[in-house]
Amino acid sequence: MKFLSMRVLLSALLCWRALSFQHSHWARGAEVSLARCMDDPESCAAGVDQMRETASTIKTEVLEELNATRTRLDHIAADFVGCNTLTSQVSSYRSSFKAKVESHTLCRKQQQAELDVSMMCTKFLTAMTVNRTLLCERESLTESAADLVSLCTPSAKETLGMWLEDMAEIFSKRHTLWKKDSEACKQAEVVIPVQQSKCNIAESILNERKQECGRALDSVESFSCSWGTGFGAR
């Protein structure tokens, strides 16, 4: 509405300017004709005809200029409409582009958090594997029965009873140690598959997030390129 008001005002100003100029020209002609009519009454008829011709010419010129002005204003209005449309498209593009960038940025932050979880899980798994190796490769669990043969040889002064008591004490201690170390080894082995499963899940989630973020980045790039190509064609 504001633009139309300005348009009407501009048209009125242009018309007023044309009319003022033509009126001045017509007034000067009228003054000359009036002076001639007073000096020579017979020339009044010719003066009237001249004034009519001048008025007709002025009217035609004013109408032509007015029509030309209207045409120019119509073109200007069309240009403004096109400009407003393009401005609206730019605003819409910026809004959409910002939303896509924010979505991609958020995705990358989530990916980083999930990467940290996956790496921490892997560290725990590595530590558990090392711990299992240490517990399950203790000497009490890895030595063979043949290595204990020397322990069974009685001394020269040792009686049968003394030897049996010594063997009972030695093998009781050996058995107790073996049971304790064997149980620790089993517990270390049990937790590894559980941790491995957790790490597999974390890695799977991370891979899915990577693909999601890749698609989000592709969307940003393709949207930007397609709009830029379209804008260049406008």
From TrEMBL:
Q: Which domain of life does this protein belong to?
A: Eukaryota
Q: Which UniProt keywords apply?
A: Signal
Its signal peptide is 1-20
Name of the protein in question: Secreted protein
